[in-house]
Amino acid sequence: MKHVGKGYKKIDSAMILSGRAVYTEDLVPAHALVIKVLRSPHAFARIVTIDTAAAMRVPGVVAIYTYKDVPQRRFTLAGQSYPEPSAYDKLLLEPLVRYVGDEVAFVVAESEKAAKQAMWLIKVTYDVLDPVLDIHTALDHPSVVHPEEDLHYNFPVGGDPKRNLACSYNHVVGDVEGELAKCDYVVEETYFDQAASQTAMETFRTFCTIDQFGRLVCTSSTQIPFHVRRHIAHALDIPASKVRVIKPRIGGGFGSKQTACTELICAFVTWTLKKPAVLILDRKEAMNCSTSRHAREWKVRLGATKDGIIQVIDMVAISDAGAYGTHAFTTFTAGEHKSVPLYNKGKAVRYSSNIVYTNHMPGGAFRGYGATEALWPLECAVTKLAKKMGVDEIELREKNLINVGETSLVYAPDEVLESGNLKEAIAKVKAMARWDERPKSWQIDEHHRGGLGIALAFQGSGIANIDNATVEIRLNDEGNYILYTGSTDMGTGSNTVLLQMACEVLGCPMEAMSCYEADTDVVPFDPGSYASSTTYVTGTAAKLAAEELRQKIVEQFATLLETDTANIDFDGLTARTLDDGRTMTTREMAAKLSVGPTYGQLSATATFGSHTSPPPFMASIAEVSVDTQTGQVVPIEFYSVVDCGTIVNPTLAKVQAEGGIVQGIGMALYEEVRYSQAGQLETNNFMLYKIPDRTDTGKVTVDFVESYEPTGAFGVKSIGEVVINTSCPAIQGAILNACGAEPTELPMIPEVVFEAMHK
DSSP secondary structure string, 34-51? Predict the structure, then answer.
């Protein structure tokens, strides 16, 4: 193909590398009011009194808002399609604060200095309550995190807030206990994956203005502009037609900006005062007062017969929703569809969890969205089962692997796997790591042992039967093209990929098309960049729009050249008649269309949503060194092969894979979330929360196998999230092979590995 499959640079790479790329803070009006948030020092407390008189006397302070001044409409900050499965359990401000960092008051001033000075002068008296800090005792705890009567669910998700049960899920297929009793081999283990921070380089930031028509304009670093518009309209009780949301360039998101952490506060201030205002979270706030990955404890049982068939997968969890139920239900349920189907030869499955409210920072969306959390215990348990059976870990996986054309116990009745080169990917990664040619465990020197570990992963491509995207492409009056999309490029290069797919259909060079994204007044609806949806869902919409526009252009050329459409050869910029060689360019045609009563601009709009969420697949082998004296684990090499369908841009796909693997290595070995006994998040800065740098990850080697997904444009599937899912279990398996230690909690810091070695 002309464009699809080519490794183009990102269309904005020169701007980024030269430092000229424009981010949200670069656009803030010079006279914008500055918002600072006074936050709770307590994990759980009721505000008895709040005195703002002294703070209001600080020169430059314009307003201070407390819970008495804000609308009383509960909402969710989760960026999800309506009706959201997340509980409407939050107000802008309320007298009950539920975690250290929860909002107490908004200070609005003419300068940051004045706002900060005023914050110190606000006097708050708290009735400190007994916090809920342990997921094991949260259910039916004497303290109720959400005692309010107006907490609202859009539909049943198994929640009972008076019991601190944010939501619950229990899916059982077959006779779990009966089938386990028939198994020749059963393994059982408890695994824990703690919360993890997304740590995007650009923190959360929003500014709002009032336009010439009296409408609220919200400019924000967000993944979900259309969802933000709905949230603002709902929370402030104003028509959505009065709200416009614009997303400039984003400095990373990784799911964190699928939650509206700053937008509603800023919108409230601007809508109330009718003045521009800006809210920028500092690094401590970004890590302490936003959302993280949900912490989960899993009890996993696997049962297999002596022929190596896994008959039972039993996964029961306790999940930490934190103070609010943001994404709590869907992150857990999504994990089922993206883990259990990997092994589909069995007869019984249970996938279950109580997701409980605690007085921790809320959980939210994080790259991998539930699959990362579920695959970690499942893949560790499969390795454990292979050890107990005395068989090769890869052979056991291959024997139970789902194949194209098969279904799963947890799939919908008519759902099957339609594409995937799963076994080819496994064979390729085995060859890369020389799995069959060397031992899985070896002595490096007196104190260090080396080991290899394997893990597989699924994910999805968009949300089946829910997400849809619309793309518009126009032929401009100069004869070039512009693509309008509501998807948000977060630095992944998704805009480049969309242009490649559209230009492939039209035939024009990449330079002939521009992309305008993520302005709710201008672009058609798109749910945003999450759920690995952009290339598959939005990209397919772009292909369909390009096909329709191409047909319109060819028909118009035929009219102007007085011939049939079959006689037109069109390369995206120039049409030529096949019989006599006459030509006309899109520039010449557009000039003719711009005048006269019978002509007009040519454009096409297409919408795509899918009945399925085709999974990309990944196979990884980790090679590590373990210090047997200290438990320190050092990654040596990480080999991965990804099947993401047809690869639109190999260069960007490779970078996506490398980035996800490194992020997963951070979750596996370094990124520790630690709370004090009083509920204070202690690891809320980069000095204490260790994210890996280039010296911490070893060598990362990525390759691909291509399959063809029939439901996606050009056979595409997603890649953005699957690539984070194998790091943790592959490294755990490598540690187990290296020294016999079986760490069961994340991160596998030296203390955890050392304790596992001496268990």
Answer: EEEEEE-SSSSEEEEEEE
